[in-house]
Write a structure and sequence with these properties.
Elements (H helix, E strand, L loop, with lengths): L1 H11 L7 E5 L7 H11 L4 E5 L9 H12 L4
Parallel strand pairs: 1-2
Length: 76
């Protein structure tokens, strides 16, 4: 589901003049990882800033995302 959503976003948004992207509410990165992979196929030089203010049972989701990004080799 998230892989398809990432593909739809990349196909339908104009990224030609974009170098920085802000994803607000990224959680643990269910969409983020797929989005970065898809966007890197058409625009290799960009920076994604992921922001999440999770609390309660969702505290720590940014740490999960950081680990996933490093594991996938997407931290460059």
């Amino acid at each position: 589901m998230y892989e398809r959503l990432a593909a739809v976003l990349v196909e339908n948004l104009a990224f030609a003049k974009v170098s920085n992207i802000l994803e607000v509410g990224c959680g643990s990165g269910q969409l983020t990882i797929h989005f970065v992979r898809k966007l890197a196929e058409i625009k290799p030089d960009f920076r994604l800033i992921a922001l999440d203010l999770s609390t309660g049972p969702y505290t720590g989701h940014l740490n999960v995302l950081k680990r996933r990004v490093r594991k996938e080799g997407l931290d460059g």
